[in-house]
Design brief:
The chain is α/β, with parallel strands linked by helices and 313 residues long. It folds into 2 domains: 2-203, DHBP synthase, CATH 3.90.870; 232-312, Rossmann fold, CATH 3.40.50. It is built from 10 helices and 12 strands. It has helices at residues 11-19, 41-51, 78-87, 104-107, 121-130, 150-156, 196-203, 240-249, 265-280, 299-308; strands spanning 24-26, 33-37, 60-62, 92-97, 112-116, 134-135, 163-164, 177-180, 187-190, 232-235, 254-257, 286-290. A hairpin with a 6-residue loop joins β1 (24-26) and β2 (33-37). It starts with 10 loop residues before the first helix and ends in a 5-residue tail after the last helix. Bound molecules: threonylcarbamoyladenylate (TXA) and magnesium ion (MG). The site of threonylcarbamoyladenylate has 29 residues, from β4, β5 and β9.
Length: 313
């Protein structure tokens, strides 16, 4: 297979590839997704094979709008309707009871399905032209940093993707917020730029935070995830100079990522994965990343940095 990237996104070629059971890379406002026809089990198995992802880790279903939900979801609680009305299209994924006939390959064999409506115009154009659901995990090898530009997808997968749609740099740059509405209490499964307070403002009830999540089936929740290849050490705020000196004393070559006072969480989050990729490519022994603020708007960034650092001892 040959990866094609046009200056103008080639929606027709991507639709043809999806109909033929092939894989496409699709820009979204969060990160680039590795897309397949969500009704085609053989195509979905290709997603797992290419990513090296365990078969029981479910994918996210992407739809053009909420109108198609009844084809995929068995019951749509009022909370889901309220969140969809407020945040779709946008970086929010809802976990809901799946409808009969939804492929096991989409849900990882679970009785639930994760669904979102992306806002990126290229994703919207693709979904509308295709006319069905597109299953799309982030377009990276399992456990690695998600791609936020088309060039990252080509680095991750030189082969195996029929069409890589160009959509520029992702506006959010971090994966969507995931909320489960399966239980009596809404449960945050993955923090994102839509924070717990924003969800609670719409729902009018408390949302259980990630710390309260049952040891879940969310691959993004396994400790080492979103990780560069170079060991990554989180350094206390203001501690980069001292940490660099210490590492140099141990004969280690380091690359650093600062979080200067006054940094804005949205801007930092947008550029984080591109920065990690760039630092990872320098071939140093260790990445030193300065800790970010502990305020709520930094929760998604903190979560991803802690996971990226999880293998460092
Ligand atoms: O922003 C995003 O969500 C991106 C873009 C491409 O839309 N996609 C993404 O997909 O981050 P992925 O596969 O890297 O992460 C999907 C997450 C996983 O943590 C998975 O376990 C969770 O969604 N998930 C999917 N179905 C689920 C389910 N039924 N119950 C609980 N978690 C589920
Ligand atoms: Mg991922």
């Amino acid at each position: 297979m040959i990866a094609t990237v046009g200056a103008a996104p080639d929606i027709a070629a991507a639709v043809a590839a999806l109909r033929a059971g092939g894989l496409v890379a699709m820009p979204t406002e969060t990160v680039y997704g590795l897309g397949a026809d969500a009704r085609n089990p053989a195509a979905l198995r290709k997603v797992y094979a290419l990513k090296g992802r365990p078969a029981d880790h479910p994918l996210i279903l992407h739809l053009a709008d909420a109108a198609a939900l009844p084809q995929w979801v068995a019951d749509l609680p009022p909370a889901a309707q309220a969140l969809a009305a407020r945040f779709w299209p946008g970086p929010l994924t809802l976990v809901l009871r799946r409808a009969p006939g939804v492929p096991d390959e989409l849900t990882g064999g679970q009785d639930s399905v994760a669904v979102r409506v992306p806002s990126h115009p290229v994703a919207q154009a693709l979904l509308r032209a295709f006319g069905g659901g597109i299953a799309a995990p982030s377009a990276n090898r399992y456990g690695r940093v998600s791609p936020t530009r088309a060039a990252h997808v080509r680095e991750e997968f030189p082969d195996g993707i029929a069409v890589i749609l160009e959509g520029g740099d992702c506006e959010v740059g971090l994966e969507s917020t995931i909320v489960s509405l399966l239980g009596p209490v809404p449960q945050l499964l993955r923090p994102g730029v839509i924070g717990g307070a924003a969800l609670e403002a719409v729902l009018g009830v408390p949302v259980a935070g990630v710390a309260a999540a049952p040891a879940p089936r969310v691959p993004g929740s396994t400790a080492q995830h979103y990780a560069p290849r170079t060991p990554l050490e989180l350094v206390p705020a203001g501690g980069l100079v001292a940490a660099s000196a210490r590492a140099a004393g141990e004969g280690l070559r380091v690359a650093t990522l600062a979080c200067p006072p006054g940094s804005d969480a949205a801007t930092y989050g947008r550029g984080l994965y591109a920065s990690l990729r760039e630092l990872d490519a320098r071939g140093v022994d260790r990445l030193l990343v300065e800790a970010v603020p502990t305020t709520p708007e930094w929760e998604a960034v903190r979560d991803r940095l802690m996971r990226a650092a999880a293998t460092f001892r």
